[in-house]
Amino acid sequence: MKDLFSIAGKIALVTGGSRGIGLMIARGYVEAGAKVYISSRKQAVCDQVTAELSKHGSCFSLPADLGSESECNRLAAELAQREPKLHILVNNAGANWGAPMAEYPDDAWDKVLALNVKSIFHLTRACLPQLAAAGSEADPARVINIGSIDGLRVPMLHTYAYSSSKAAVHHLTRVLAVELAAKHITVNAVAPGPFESKMMAETLRSFGDAIKASVPLGRIGAPEDMAGIAIYLASKAGAYLTGTVIPVDGGITVRPS
Question: Is the pTM of this model over 0.85?
Answer without folding.
Answer: yes
